[in-house]
Amino acid sequence: MSEHVNFVDILEPRRTQSGIFSFMSRNWRPQRTMVMDKYCSTQDLKDIVANSVYLDSIIEAECSRTGLSKEKLHQEVRNYLEEMGLDKKMHVIRWNGVFFLKICFMMKIKMFVNEAAVLTLKSKMGKNPVLFLPTHRSYADFCLMTYLCYHYDIDFPAVAAGMDFYSMAVIGRRMRETGAFYIRRTLAGDPLYAATLKQYVRTVVGKHAVPIEFFLEGTRSRSNKSMPPKYGMLSMTLMPFFAHEVNDITIVPVNISYDRLMEHSLFAYEHLGVPKPKESTGGFLKALRSLNDHFGNIYINLGAPLSLREYLHNDTSHSKETLKPVDLQQLTPDQFKKVQKIADYVITLQQKNTVATISNLLSLVLMQSLMKNRLLEYEELIQEVEWMVQELRNLGASVFENDVRSSVDRILVVHRSMMRLDKDRRLRLISGVLTDLSSEDKKKMKGHILQAQTMVVAVPIVQLQLYVNPVLHYIAPPALIYLIVQRQALSRDKLREDYRRIRKLLSHEFFHLEKDEENTFNKALDYCIQNRVISNSGDLYSLGEDTKLQYLLRWATWPALTTLLKAADVMTQQSSCGHKLALKLVQQRLESERVHPYCLSLEAIANCLSGLVAAGALVKLKGDQDIVYELVPDVMKESTILVNSILPSFSVDFANNFVVIDDKAISRL
Amino acid sequence: MSAAFASSSDSKMNNVENDNRTVDSVKKKSFGDKNKKNDTNANSSTVIKVKSVIPRRRQDLLKWYGWGYKDSMFKLGEEGATFTGNRYSIGGKILPHLSKWAIDNLGVDPTKPPTIPKIPTTFAESRLPEPIRLELEKIALVSVDGMDRLIRAHGQTLKDMSQLRSNSFPRIPDAVIWPESHEQVEKIVSCASRHNFVLIPFGGGTSVSGAVTCPAKEMRPIVVVDTSDMNSILWLDKDQLLAKVQAGIIGQDLEREMRARGFTVGHEPDSYEFSTLGGWVATRASGMKKNTYGNIEDLIVQTKVVTPRGVIEKSCRVPRISCGPDFEHIVMGSEGCFGIVTEVTLKIRPLPPVVRYGSLVFPDWESGFHFEREVARQRLQPSSIRLMDNEQFRFGQALKTENTWGGVLLDGLKRLYITKIKGFDPAKLCVVTLLMEGSAEEVKEREKKLNAIAAKYGGIPAGATNGENGYTLTFVIAYLRDVAIEYDVVAESFETSVPWDRTLALCANVKRRVRDECARRGIHKYLISHRLTQTYDAGCCIYFYFGHNTAQVSDPVNTYEEIEEAARDEIIACGGSISHHHGVGKLRKKWYTDTVSEPGRQLLLAAKKTLDPDNIFALANMAFEEQGNETIVKSKL
C-alpha cells in the first residue's frame, strides 16, 4: 500500500448540533450494483427461491428418498427462507443509523475511510454484482460497511450473519431489516437447508442489485490477524458467474483496523479456553454501558476492486454442467479450485490493505519492553515508536499516522485500562485481576484448566499480543530468515529450503499464499541484507550487525515457534490423538514451562497442529466425534529438528516483570 | 484366443484406468436389493431413484418363455376362454366368444392341452474367462447363472420364442452385468475393449427384429449389459418441461413417475410396459400418441452414448442446431451396434386435463381410409387415431367379455342400427378408434370436427366405450401369440410406412400375396389382417397381423418367415418401407442396402469403423455381418 492514501473521518460532519437527525432523515437515493429492468423486493427473492427449479428438484428427490410429503418439504423451505431471508425497512435503517451514530460518539470513535477508493468503486457500479469482503475482527464490523454505504449513497449491503444474532431479541430482527440474512454455521445433516441457502445466496447475488457482504474467514478472528478462508459462502456467491447468469462479479477486499477492539478482553480469555458468552440482547445492553469510553480510530481500507472475469482471464470455457437446467448447475471440481484460489488471494489482499495503527506499534514497543524486562521512559518510547514506524514502512506496511507523539498520547488514553505511564512516565502494562473461575466456568473450559495465577499473567499479555498480531505478517518472513541464518551461515538454496519448510509449518499461524512465497522470500532476504540483519559474501549468508533490528526479529516469531515445537513434542509422544485432547495436552505442557503467554492460545496451538498436517508430519482423519491426528514419525522428526534448531532462546519472567504494574483498583471484567 | 484378447488392449478410452474408486467401495450386492442403490451423493442431489416394477430377477415376475407378466395369459377351455390375472381390464373375466373365433378362423382345438415348456436346467457353459469376470465384478453386479443368461439371449420374434421354448439357441450370452451409472458403463466398455469381448446392450428385451438376439456365430465371450438398474431420473425441470433420465428406465416406470408429478412423456409404444428409454432410442421407436407428443426423435433433446472410442454427447442443450449432420441420428436407430445409450434428456408435457375416447364406424376399409387421409390433410389428428379392418373388428368382438343384460341389449341395439338402418355389411365394416387429449373445450371442438369429416365419408359415431376397449386391448393383444403357439398356431405382426397414394394398393396386394403364399403351401386356416395406426402429412403406418395353423407344416417357423419375407418383398415393391418403428435388426437385413443405397451402407460401415473398430458391439444388425472365427483370425494377420 502506498502511504499517500487519503483517509477521511466520515463521522466528522455529523458532529454538529443537528448533524445526526438531518443526515439520517435525508432523501436517500442509493447507487445500485446493477441496472435492471425490474428490481426484486425482498419478498420476491424468497418467492423466486421457493419456486426455483433447483429446490423443486431437491424436494422431488428428497421426497422420493424419504417418503416425506412434498407439501411438508415445501413448507420447510418456506420456513428456512423466513429464517434466513433479508428484509429492508427504511425507517428501521434510519433509526439504526441514529442509534449507531450516538454510540459512535459515545465511544469517541473516528471512522477513517479511504474515500477515493469508495468513490472510484461507486462510479464503476451498475454493471454486475459487487462483493464486499471485509476482515472480521469485531462485531462492530457488521455496522461499519452498512453505515459507510449510507454515507456514500450506495445501496445497503446484504450481510451474511451467523445464527447467533438471529436469536437475539429485537436486535436479530433489526439486523434483518437493515439487510442481514442469516446462515447456520453448519450445513451438515440437513440437505434441504443447505440447498435452500445455496439457492437463496445465488439469487440474492444474481438478482438483488445491492452489494453482498460476508466474512471470508467465517468468524471473527480472535487473534486480530488473518485466518485461512472458508470456501462455502464464496462458492455460493460466485455461482451466478460460473453459471453465466452475470457477466462479472466485482470483489472488493476490505481491511478494517481498530485502535481498540471492543472484545479484546473476551478474546484474550477465549484464547486461553474460556468460552465466549452467548450473544444476547441483555449482554448487548450491558456491553453498551462499557462503551462509554475511548475507542480510538477505525480504519476502513477498501482495496482495489478485483474483477472476477479478469482474474480468471476471461475464461469462457464451459463444462458439461451447461447441459443441466441453469438452476441446477453446480460448481465443477475445477471451478471450486478456482474459488479456493480466489478466497486465498483475497485474504492476502486484505493483509496488504492492513493499516498499521499506532495502537499496533505501541503494542510492539511495549511487548519488546516486556521481553527485555526493561522499562521505557516516555521520550525513549516515542523514539522507539518512530523507529517501529520506519521499520514497518520499510517492510511495506502502510502507517497512517505521521504525528507520532500526539498519536501515542491519544492511544494511551484509548488503551488506558491496558497500559499506562507510571509516575515516572514510564510505560507499564497493567496486570490482570486474580479471579477464581467458578466450577461452572471450569466445566465449560475448552482446553486445559489453567491455574488462576497463570491466567492473571497471561490475560493482559495475550491481549497486548492481539495488537501485535496484525503486523506480524510483515515481520514473519525476515524474522524466519534471520533465525535460520543465526543458527549458522548457509547458502541461499539451503536458506530458501529451510525457510520454505518452516513457512509451511506456520502456514496457518501466518497465512500466506504458497505461490507468492518465492517473491516474499526474495523481498525479505533483500530487506535483511539492506538493513544489515544478515550479510552475504558469495553464496554464503551470515549474520549482519544491526542488533536492534535483529532483536525485534528474534522475539517476533518466538511464541509461534515455541508453540509449534511443543505441539510437535506432544504429538510425537501421543502418536495418535484427538483434536480436543491435543489442544489440552499442548496447553498443559506449555503452562509448566516458562514461555510467552501467547503460546497458551488455543488458536495458536490449533494453527500449529494444522501446520504440522500441512507439512505432512501429521495425518488428519475424521474420527467419530472429533478430528484425529496420526503421527508420521519421519516427517515429524525432521520438522522437530528444524524448529528446534532455529528456536531463539529467551528467558523472560512474565510473572514478575518490571514492566507489569499491578493496579488492583481497575477492574475490566 | 489369448492372443486375440491381448492385442487390442491399447488405449481405447483414456479416462478409465486411474479411477479405482468403485473398486474399493464395491459392495456385495444381491439380487434382492435392486432398489437399495448406494446412497452416496444422495444428499442435496436432484436424482430421483425410481423403484422399478420389474425386479432384477426378471423371471420372478415375467414369463420366461413368452410375453409379459407370468400371471397374465390367455387360456382356452371348453367352458370358454379366460384371461388370467388382474393386471388388465379383461383380467379374470370369461371371454365367451374367443374359443369359437379361434376354431373358426385358425382351426384351433381348444380341448387339447396347451404345450407349456419346461423350465430349462442345462445351459451352455459360460465362456467368460475368470479374470475378466472378476474385473467386471469390481465394476458392477455380474451373473453367469444360466437362466439369467438365457432370458437375455433374445427378443420377441417368432424365431426367438420357438428357440426359447425348446432351449435351442445356438448361442446365449456368457454373463450379464447390471451397471448403475454412465460411469460404470464407461468402465465396462473399456474393459471389453481391452479384453476384446462382445457387449450386447439389453433393455426390456421386447425387440421384434432380432436386433438383441445373440449373434449365433460369435466366438468371443458375450456379456449382456442389462441397463435396468440405470433407471433414475437425474433431474426434472418443470419449467423447461425437460427431464434427464437414465436410459434403462422402463416405459411404465417413467410414465408413472411423471404422472405422479403432473406430467407425461406421452411415448407409448405397445411394448411400453417393458421396453426401455434406451431401447426406444436405439430402434427409433414410435408411440401410439405421437400426434400429440411426437415420435422418439421429436421427444429427445439430447442423448449420451458410450462407444468404445469415447462418449458422444452434444455440448449444449438446445432446441435445434445447424451444425452438419445431426449425430443424434447416428445414435437413434443404431440398434446397439455403436454403443450404449446411458442418459437421455427428453421433453415432458403437463398431463392433459381431459382424456376422451371415441369411435367411428365406416361401411368399409376404403371409406375409413379416406377419412383418415382427410383428417391428416387438415392436420386434425387427435393423440391417436387408428383404423381397423373388418377382421380386426371381428376379432375385437371375439374378445368381448360377458356383459350385463343391459350392455348386451345396448350392443344389440347398436348393431341393429348400424347393420339394418344404416345398411353396413357386418363382413365389411371397419372401425376407427380415437384418443383425444386436451382441455374440455379443445376435445369437444376436435370431436365435433372429426365427426363432421366422418359424416362426409359415411362414418357414424359409435361411442366412447368401443374406443376405450380398442385401446385397452392394445396391451393384451401381445399375449395372444403365446396362446397361439400353445395351440399350434404361429403368429406375428409386421408393419410398414407408406405414402398415402400407395396405401390402398399396398394393403390389398400384401393381403393377396399372403393368401397366395398360404394357398401354395396348403395352409387353409390363417388370419391376415391390418390396421392403419399412424398418420403423417406424407403417409401412414400400416400394421399387419398374420398367423396360421401349423398342422400341415413341417417347419412352422421357417414357413412363417418365408411368407413374411414374401409379404415384405410385396410391401417394398408397392412403395412401402422396411419398417416404420420395429427396426431392421437381423430379420430385415435383406432390404437394408436397397433402402439406404450403397453409399448409405458404406456410410454406416464407416461410422462403425470409427466408433467401434474392434466390433465390441457385434450385434450384426442392419448392414453388419456376423463375425465368426475366420474373420477374427483374418483381422489379426
UniProtKB/TrEMBL annotation, chain A:
<dbReference type="InterPro" id="IPR002123">
    <property type="entry name" value="Plipid/glycerol_acylTrfase"/>
</dbReference>
<protein>
    <submittedName>
        <fullName>Dihydroxyacetone phosphate acyltransferase</fullName>
    </submittedName>
</protein>
<dbReference type="GO" id="GO:0004366">
    <property type="term" value="F:glycerol-3-phosphate O-acyltransferase activity"/>
</dbReference>
<dbReference type="Pfam" id="PF19277">
    <property type="entry name" value="GPAT_C"/>
</dbReference>
<dbReference type="InterPro" id="IPR041728">
    <property type="entry name" value="GPAT/DHAPAT_LPLAT"/>
</dbReference>
<dbReference type="GO" id="GO:0012505">
    <property type="term" value="C:endomembrane system"/>
</dbReference>
<dbReference type="GO" id="GO:0016287">
    <property type="term" value="F:glycerone-phosphate O-acyltransferase activity"/>
</dbReference>
<keyword id="KW-0472">Membrane</keyword>
<keyword id="KW-0012">Acyltransferase</keyword>
<dbReference type="Pfam" id="PF01553">
    <property type="entry name" value="Acyltransferase"/>
</dbReference>
<dbReference type="InterPro" id="IPR045520">
    <property type="entry name" value="GPAT/DHAPAT_C"/>
</dbReference>
<comment type="similarity">
    <text>Belongs to the GPAT/DAPAT family.</text>
</comment>
<keyword id="KW-0808">Transferase</keyword>
<dbReference type="GO" id="GO:0006631">
    <property type="term" value="P:fatty acid metabolic process"/>
</dbReference>
<feature type="domain" description="Phospholipid/glycerol acyltransferase">
    <location>
        <begin position="130"/>
        <end position="259"/>
    </location>
</feature>
<dbReference type="GO" id="GO:0019432">
    <property type="term" value="P:triglyceride biosynthetic process"/>
</dbReference>
<dbReference type="GO" id="GO:0008654">
    <property type="term" value="P:phospholipid biosynthetic process"/>
</dbReference>
<dbReference type="GO" id="GO:0031966">
    <property type="term" value="C:mitochondrial membrane"/>
</dbReference>
<dbReference type="GO" id="GO:0005778">
    <property type="term" value="C:peroxisomal membrane"/>
</dbReference>
<dbReference type="GO" id="GO:0008611">
    <property type="term" value="P:ether lipid biosynthetic process"/>
</dbReference>
<dbReference type="InterPro" id="IPR022284">
    <property type="entry name" value="GPAT/DHAPAT"/>
</dbReference>
UniProtKB/TrEMBL annotation, chain B:
<feature type="domain" description="FAD-binding PCMH-type">
    <location>
        <begin position="169"/>
        <end position="351"/>
    </location>
</feature>
<keyword id="KW-0274">FAD</keyword>
<comment type="similarity">
    <text>Belongs to the FAD-binding oxidoreductase/transferase type 4 family.</text>
</comment>
<dbReference type="GO" id="GO:0071949">
    <property type="term" value="F:FAD binding"/>
</dbReference>
<dbReference type="InterPro" id="IPR025650">
    <property type="entry name" value="Alkyl-DHAP_Synthase"/>
</dbReference>
<dbReference type="InterPro" id="IPR016169">
    <property type="entry name" value="FAD-bd_PCMH_sub2"/>
</dbReference>
<keyword id="KW-0444">Lipid biosynthesis</keyword>
<dbReference type="GO" id="GO:0005777">
    <property type="term" value="C:peroxisome"/>
</dbReference>
<keyword id="KW-0285">Flavoprotein</keyword>
<keyword id="KW-0576">Peroxisome</keyword>
<comment type="pathway">
    <text>Glycerolipid metabolism; ether lipid biosynthesis.</text>
</comment>
<feature type="binding site">
    <location>
        <begin position="270"/>
        <end position="276"/>
    </location>
    <ligand>
        <name>FAD</name>
    </ligand>
</feature>
<feature type="binding site">
    <location>
        <position position="481"/>
    </location>
    <ligand>
        <name>substrate</name>
    </ligand>
</feature>
<dbReference type="InterPro" id="IPR016164">
    <property type="entry name" value="FAD-linked_Oxase-like_C"/>
</dbReference>
<feature type="compositionally biased region" description="Polar residues">
    <location>
        <begin position="1"/>
        <end position="17"/>
    </location>
</feature>
<feature type="active site" description="Proton donor/acceptor">
    <location>
        <position position="543"/>
    </location>
</feature>
<feature type="binding site">
    <location>
        <begin position="201"/>
        <end position="207"/>
    </location>
    <ligand>
        <name>FAD</name>
    </ligand>
</feature>
<dbReference type="InterPro" id="IPR036318">
    <property type="entry name" value="FAD-bd_PCMH-like_sf"/>
</dbReference>
<protein>
    <recommendedName>
        <fullName>Alkylglycerone-phosphate synthase</fullName>
        <ecNumber>2.5.1.26</ecNumber>
    </recommendedName>
</protein>
<dbReference type="Pfam" id="PF01565">
    <property type="entry name" value="FAD_binding_4"/>
</dbReference>
<feature type="site" description="Important for enzyme activity">
    <location>
        <position position="386"/>
    </location>
</feature>
<feature type="binding site">
    <location>
        <begin position="335"/>
        <end position="341"/>
    </location>
    <ligand>
        <name>FAD</name>
    </ligand>
</feature>
